[in-house]
Structures are given as C-alpha cells and as structure tokens.
Amino acid sequence: MSGTSADGITAALTEVSGTGEQVRIKLMGYKTIPYASEVKERVFNLFKPDICTVQDICEMNYVLGEAFAEAANHLMRDLGVSPEAVDLIGSHGQTIWHQPKAEPVSGYRAESTLQIGEPAVISEKTGILVVSDFRKADMAAGGEGAPLTPYMDYVLHRSPDENRVLQNIGGIANLTFLPAGAPLSDVIAFDTGPGNMIIDALVKKHTGASHDVDGGLASRGMVNKKLLSELLAHPYYGHSPPKTTGREVFGEEYSERVAKRALKLNLSLEDLIATVTSLTVETIINAYRMLPESVDAVYVSGGGAKNPMIVEGLRNGLGVPVLDYSMLGFPGEAKEAVLVALLANENVMGTPCNVVSATGAHRQVVLGYPTWI
Question: According to the 3-state scheme, what is the secondary structure of the chain?
Fold first, then answer.
C-alpha cells in the first residue's frame, strides 16, 4: 500500500479467516519501505499534468510493480515465510489521479480513477496471485471509488454501545462514523479535506524537510485568521457526503497558491504552518457537524496522529476522547495495508465490500481483479 502522501510502501503479512461480518484478521508483521529518492521524485511528477507524459505513466507502472514486489519479498524474508505459504497479495497501487466528478464526454461518463503498480510484475516477481484495482468496480457502479476503509472499520471495529469515528489523517484526512449497533448501511464515511498534504508541501518548499516533525514549526507560530478564513471558504468543505478528494484538488498547485498568498500577507514560515495545520484541524471538526448523531470517541491513525498540534487541536475542538487507533488492535501505520489484505480476501471469497452509503454506488459489488502469471 502507498497512500496519498506517497512517501513509501507499507506491506503487511496477515492471516485472514472467514468473510463479511464474521471475518477475523491476525497481523503477523509489517514493514514500511521508503521510496528511493529517484522513484519518489518520478512518482510526484506523475501528479503534475503539465509535465507528466504517457511515457512517464507507462514506465512508472512497471517500476512501482517492481517496488511493490520487492517490499512483499522483503517482508516475507524478514518474517521467515516462504512465498509458497502465502495464498495471495492485495495491492492497492499508487493513486496518480482520482476524478470522482467529471463532465461527460460525448454523453459518456468520465468519472475515473487510476492506480499504478503493475500486478503482473508483482505476481511474476513473487510467484503469488495478486488482487488489485479495488476502486474501479465501485466507480463503474456509479460510486466515487472511495473511501475503501469503511468496510474494514465496520467489520473489525464496530461497537454495540459506542458511537465511534475512525479518523485517518494521511495526505488527505477521512473519517468513518460507526453508529453504535448499526448495520453496514448506516455507516457514514468521507474525506474531510487535506490532512498532511498541504503542511508537508509547504514544509518541503521552505525547509527541504519531508514534514513538520512533532508539529514543531506550527507550535512556534500563530494562526493567521484571515488566511485561515480564506482557505475554509473552499467549496469542497460545504459539499455533502458522499465525497472524496485528493491531490487533484489540494496538491502542489494548491499549496503554491497558499504559499503566494502567505507571502502577500507577510507571514513567517511558523505562522504559515500553524495556519495550514489549523486548516486540517478545523475542517475535520467541521465535518463532524455533518454527522447525524453525537460521537463518543475518536480513534486516530495516519501520519497526522503523530503531530501533537493536530491531535491536541482535535481534543480541544471535539470535546470527546481522541485516542490512538492502535487501541483497537492494529498499529496505525499498518492499517491501510491490512485493509488491502482484507479486500483481497473478500475478492477471492466473492464478497461485495464497497460501502454504498460512503461511495454513492447504486449497488454493492466485488472489488478488485486477480492476476496470476
């Protein structure tokens, strides 16, 4: 799995038994492997339509297939597990474009999504069946192709007596609301907006660092209310779910516009990072106002869970316990890789696992496609 932050590959080895609401997962081990610097640079160039070419996409599809296979092989060696003992690999791939809303082309739907990391290469390099491309079937059925996480959140983490939100803060932040004792059809999930994406882009632009370590820059700055108010006026935040977003909206071009606006306002770097960190916090808090019931507890995962300025901001603003996702049984760093293992299991079991209340699809469908060479 490589998410919207696109900083590396997380592989997890799991034991999965059952399917649907009876599924059980045991995490045997996991490993995160950062992208090589050249690979990371090439991946980020794919997010820039002004310089990305078809050749770039074609090449990097195979390069990332090699990288994903290498990550899987490394993990198996580290854990002393032979490829023959592994039944299948789930690969989400690297999203390079996600377009849940689009104008029709000659009357044909143009909503689309693209993840790369060639599954045939992964299968060849590991000798294992690969299930991939989990977003496309939902999108074909009229959905947004995301979020995918609510299915795992529901089957593994629902509670009979606690209204839970599972809040992921990766490049993009997203929530899953699990009403106490409710069926899958009552689950609400959507992207709240940027998580670490804008923070990371601006920190990298000004310092060369990959992120704001421990929220240090933000902690030394003051939130600029004028800039924050302008950023909160973005139309995405007012849209009702189901909704998803990504780099296409809040990526490098958007971050550049924010940087230019901050320059006009004479903001220091610390004030700029404090302001965009507050944007992440405020948009998450505001999103909870769209939920039909009050929340009893929030469980946070993703890189943002390691930023004290974000976590404390949520605690102060929400007024409910904000806890680390690991309290539910899995390390937050492994969550999305475990999700992909679950989705692969459900594919071979023939179990539909898109949450239509979250994606907007008109029916449940089996997600992913198998590749074995």
Answer: CECCCCCEEEEEEEEEECCHHHCEEEEEEEEEEECCHHHHHHHHHCCCCCCCCHHHHHHHHHHHHHHHHHHHHHHHHHHCCCHHHCCEEEECCEEEEEECCCCCECCECCCEEEEECCHHHHHHHHCCEEEECCCHHHHHCCCCCCCCHHHHHHHHHCCCCCCEEEEEECCEEEEEEECCCCCHHHCEEEEEEECCHHHHHHHHHHHCCCCCHHHHHHHCCCCCHHHHHHHHCCHHHHCCCCCCCCHHHHCHHHHHHHHHHHHHCCCCHHHHHHHHHHHHHHHHHHHHCCCCCCCCEEEEECHHHHCHHHHHHHHHHHCCCEEEHHHHCCCHHHHHHHHHHHHHHHHHHCCCCCCHHHHCCCCCCCCCEEECC
Q: Which residues contact 134 (CB under 8 A, 6 or more apart)?
A: 90, 92, 148, 340, 343, 367, 368
Say whether both 122 and 167 belong to one domain: no
71 and 172 in a single domain? The answer is no
154 and 138 part of one domain: no
User: Using CB atoms within 10 A of its CB, is residue 85 exposed (0-12), middle (13-18) or buried (19+)?
Assistant: exposed
| Judgement on whether residues 160 and 248 belong to the same structural domain of the protein | yes
Question: pLDDT by residue (tens digit) across 194-242?
Answer: 999 999 999 999 999 999 999 999 999 999 999 999 999 999 999 999 9
> What is the C-alpha separation between 167 and 314, in angstroms, rounded?
11
| Domains identified in the chain, total number | 2
Query: In which domain, by residue range, is 132 found?
Result: 8-146+355-371
CA angle (224, 228, 234) in 5-degree steps: 160
Write the pLDDT tens digit of every residue in 60-99: 999 999 999 999 999 999 999 999 999 999 999 999 999 9
Domain harbouring 20, CATH code:
3.30.420.40
Give the integer Cα–Cα distance in Å for 333 and 312: 20
Residue 297 forms beta bridges with which residues? 164
- From residue 185, alpha-carbon distances to 73, 137, 188, 189 in Å are 38, 19, 8, 11
Token digits for 127?
């000798």
Contact 362, 138 (CB under 8 A): no
